[in-house]
Amino acid sequence: MIHYLKKQWRLSTLTCLFAIIAYGAQALIQLALMKIFDAVVLLDLRSTIFWTAVDLTCWGGYFLFTALQEHCQAKTIRALNNTVRDGLYHSFLRKSHTDFHQSDTGEYLARLTNDIKQLEQLAWIPFFGCVGRIAQIVFSILGLAFLHWSLVVFSVITAVVLWLSPKLFQKKLELLGQSCGVLQTAAINHLKDLLTGFDVLQFFGRGNLFLQQGNRISDDIEKPSCQLSYEKSRMEALIGFINVALQLGSLVLIAALTSMGLVTTGTLAGGVNLIGGVANGFNSLAGLRLSLSASKPYFCKLPTVDTDSKSEEIAPMSPLKDSITVDRVSFCYDEKKPILKDASFHFEKGKKYALTGPSGCGKSTLLKLLLGWLPDYSGTISFDDVDIHTITPAQLQQQMSYIEQNVFLFNTTIRENITLGEDFSEEQLHAAIQGSALAADLAAMPDGLDTVVGENGSNLSGGQKQRVAIARALIHNRSILLVDEGTSALDQKNADLVEKSLLTNPDLTLILISHHLSAARRAQFDRVYELAPVTQ
Fold first, then answer.
1. Are 516 and 358 in contact (CB under 8 A)?
2. Where do the ABC transmembrane type-1 domain residues begin and end (predicted)?
3. What CATH code is carried by the domain that includes residue 276?
C-alpha cells in the first residue's frame, strides 16, 4: 500500500493535512465550549460573546477543511486506483504470450474492476480515515493534558484497550478478505460466460435460464462482500460496546475531579467530548484497522512492477536476409498428444508458402512457434541461422505480422483499427486498402475510414473484418506475413484479389494456412507443405 501512496504523495499528503487541520479545529471547538460554559456560570457576558465567536470560527474552519479533505480524498483515490491499474497494465505487457493466456479475460476484468473497488473500500478510504482519527486522538489528548493529567492517563488506558481489541479478529478478517476476492473473481468469470452465450440462449427461447443464471451469479458476486461486512459489523459492535463503557468511566472521573475542585465546571461540557474524541477515535481506528487487514490479500495479488523506470528498448532486429529454418521440431500441449513431431520446414525470403492439412495437424501451432509464442519445443527454429530462442517474441514481431482466424477489432473506427494509433500517410493507407480489397467496402460506407466498427467489429461482416485485419498487417510493413485462414471469410472474388496481392508482392515472405487450395491457386505458391496428424 505504501508503494502506491508514495507514487501519489502530493495528493496523499494534502488529503492528510486537511484531515489533521479539521480534527485540530474540532478539539479547539471543545476547549472553546468549556470557556463558554465557565463564562456563563460566572455571568460574564463579554467572555461569553468572545468565546462563542471563537467557537463559531472553529466550526467554520472545521467544515471548510472537512469539505476540502473530502474533495481532495476523492481525487487522491481516483489517482491511486489509476496507479494500481497502470501497474497491472505494465505487468500484462511483461507477460509472455503463454503466461498471459493462462488466465481468461474474466479474471483480468475482475482484477481491474472488482479488486480495485475492494482496495478503495478496504484500503484507501480506511487509510485516510486512520490519519484523521489519529489526529483526533492526538489533539484530544493535548486538550485533556491542558485540563488535568489524570484525564490523559485515563485516555491512554482507553486507547490501549481499544487498540488491542481488533487483534482478536484480525486474522479472521484477512482470511475472509482473501476468500471474498477468489469467490467474486469466479462469479465474474461465470457472468462473462453467460453474457457471451446470450445469443444462444435467446435463440433457443431460454430467456428464463438467462434470468435464473444472471440472478444467481449476481448473488454470488454480492454474497462474499455481504459476509465480510457482516463479520466486520459484528466485531465492530463488540468494540463499540467496550467504547461506551469506557466513556461512562470518563464521565465519572470528570465528575469526581470537578467535585474536588481540580477542574472547572466547564470541563463537564467539553472534557467528556475530548475523552470521547480519544475513545471514538480509537474505536473507529480499530474498525479501520480491520478493513486494512482485509485488504492485504488484494495487495498480495498486485504485481511488483516499477512503472517509473524507463521501459527497456527492444533491440532492432535485422530484416530476414536468407531464410527461416525449422529443423526436427516437436511440440505438444499435452504430453500424451504431440502436435508436431520431428517436423522440418524451410521458408526462403520473398517466397510464398502454403500449409494445408486436416484440423489438429499443427498448422496454427507452427505459426505460433515461428512467432516465439510457444518456446517449449524441441528441435531448432532459425532466423537466418540465428536460433529464435535467443530472440525475444517482440523482436520477431518487428519483422512479422500475423492474421489469425478469429479477427479481433477494437470498438473504434476502421482507420484506428488499421493504424493502431500510428501515423501513416494517405498513400500508405491507400496501398493497404487496395492490397486488402477493402476499397469497395469503404466506398459503400457513408463515413468510410471513420466508420465505427462496433464491439469486436459487430457492425461489419466476417469478410469485412478480415479485410481490415489484412490492411492492418500490410500497412505496418512487416516483411514476413503469417496468415491463419486469413481469407476464409471472403467470397471467392475478394479472396482472389487479396491472395493475388499477397502472392505478387516480391518483398513479402508469405506463409499461409488453408484447408482448401484449388489446383490453380496451389500452382501460385512456391511450395505447399502438407501436414498430417502425428500418429502415436
1. no
2. 14-294
3. 1.20.1560.10
